[in-house]
Amino acid sequence: MKRTTLSLIAGATALAAVTGFAALTAPDGAAAPEAKATTRLPVERVGLVCPAPSTSELAETLYTSYTPAGTGKGSAPAAGQAEQPSAQLRTVASTTTGGGTGGKKPKPAKAPATVTAPGKPVTAEAEGPAVPALTGSATGALAPGWTVQQTTVVPAGGARGLLGLGCGAPDTDFWFPGASTAKERQDYVHLTNPDDTAAVADIELYGPEGALKSQFTEGIPVPAHSTVPVLLSTLTTEAPLKDVTVHVTTRSGRVGAAVAAADDKLGSDWLAAAADPASTAVLPGIPADATSVRLVAFAPGEDDADLKVQLSTTSGSIVPAGAGSLHVKSGMTAALDLPDLTRGAVGSLLLTPSDPKKATPIVAALQVVRGKGADTEIAFIPATAAVAARATVADNRAKGSTLSLTAQGADAQVKVTASAGSAGGTPVTKTVTVKAGTTTVVPDLVPGGLKGSYALTVEPVSGGKVYGARTLALPEDGIPMFTVQTFVDDRGTVEVPTAHQDLGVLD
């Protein structure tokens, strides 16, 4: 996620990285010399983690692996690196903690989702309850922007639903507002260690009254190349709570983290980590036909947060009737129901300080329900950061995919590319203008002659900050199954100082 270390391509880049380190470690407390210039170069290696998709016998999972064309083209391999670039996923072992696979031997996917060239998605299928977690890395020209989407269909049972997740980078700090320990919920936080050494993680739970009395939450070992699913309700002796914020940190090492949430009545989906705490939060892509929307927010600092709640619609920003503000006490989880929010049009929620002079950092997520009665499905939309340079969501289908973009602060232009299909098709690119304070749906952007699934890539061109989300809807037996993935910047390039500093400070 936020602090993942990325190695760089070419010897000049390595030299720049060394000199940058030298500048930060000047002797005798001397001021670090300022870099005279920087440049942006494609990353040379990235890693991703996909949690074990399901424990259901009926689960069918599709992995889609994709690297956008362009950024890494023509890049040279770093010293000591094999000339042939690669992007591949590998299985890891499962360790049961408060739940899991029931001791069944992990079964690998039929074929790892291996990308061989930028610009074309590659897919792999897996079935059943014993499919393991996956970790992987991409190198060389396949590294910049490498994206893996994990999509699972569970047609019946307690975990029924369409579960979608963009596999994330390992990190040391994750926030998950929107989790639950309620009796009707089975929420597991999956901790996956992609590295050669063990990691140690802590899990903190916060309810409406503050931190929950917890047990077995400190010093959770996550062995090397393994995954640990932890059932949240087993971590506390306090009464079940509808709204809980989960904070995952590591004492040593890195993990990938995601929450698998299953509701006995509403369905199931993955809850991805929210953007880092900030005084403003954007939650894009609320489906037009949402029948229930619940906002969950948490203030991790020492100050309370008073938030203004706005909905960015296709025509402008409005204040939801009777739900225009939310008070979030420090260290406590707050929730707000937003009935009849979208009224037939896709929208995005914007949270800002009620008083700009009192900007308190928060984390936030939405729980969204489509359908009514027994035919319902649930999904989650975490607050997300703006797309800085480029972001991709893979596994889009000819029917059922909806791309929505929202601009804040100023009008914005973005370039949107629908890639070639995994089994054939011609890429299509379109420039889209998004007016400030509105949400724009991008229709009919499908590759020509599409066969298979495709990826959607968003690149800002000019103007204000842009946030995006993709909704994938795959109805089954009258149930409006869906999942929403936000566009997270792919960090395909990294800013590197030029080698003007004096290496003598290392002596």
What this model shows, in words?
The protein has 507 residues and is an all-beta fold. It is 3% helix and 47% strand. The protein contains one helix and 36 strands. Strands 28, 29, 31, 32, 34 and 35 form a six-stranded antiparallel beta sheet that branches. It has a five-stranded mixed beta sheet with strand order 5-15-11-17-18, with no helix packed on it. Strands 10, 12, 13, 14 and 16 form a five-stranded antiparallel beta sheet that branches. A hairpin with an 8-residue loop joins strand 34 (454-473) and strand 35 (482-486). The protein starts with 10 loop residues before the first helix and ends in a 10-residue tail after the last strand. Mean pLDDT is 87; it is low at 1-33, 72-82, 98-107 and 501-507.
Average of per-residue pLDDT values? 87
Computed CA radius of gyration, to the nearest angstrom = 22 Å
What overall geometry do the principal axes of the alpha carbons give?
globular
Give the number of helices. Answer: 1
Gap between N and C termini: 34 Å
> Major sheet: size, sense and barrel closure?
6 strands, antiparallel
Helical content class: under 10%
Structural class: mainly beta
The low-pLDDT segments are 1-33, 72-82, 98-107, 501-507
The overall strand count is 36
Beta-strand percent range: over 45%
What layout of secondary structure does this protein have?
Elements: H1 11-24, E1 38-42, E2 45-50, E3 60-66, E4 87-91, E5 93-94, E6 122-127, E7 134-139, E8 147-154, E9 161-166, E10 173-179, E11 185-193, E12 199-207, E13 210-211, E14 220-222, E15 226-231, E16 244-252, E17 256-263, E18 267-271, E19 281-286, E20 290-298, E21 305-312, E22 317-318, E23 325-328, E24 333-337, E25 347-353, E26 363-372, E27 375-382, E28 391-396, E29 401-418, E30 424-426, E31 428-434, E32 439-442, E33 448-451, E34 454-473, E35 482-486, E36 493-497
Parallel strand pairs: 5-15
Antiparallel strand pairs: 1-36, 2-7, 3-6, 3-8, 4-7, 8-9, 10-16, 11-15, 11-17, 12-13, 12-14, 12-16, 17-18, 19-25, 20-24, 20-26, 21-22, 21-23, 21-25, 26-27, 28-34, 29-31, 29-32, 29-34, 30-33, 34-35
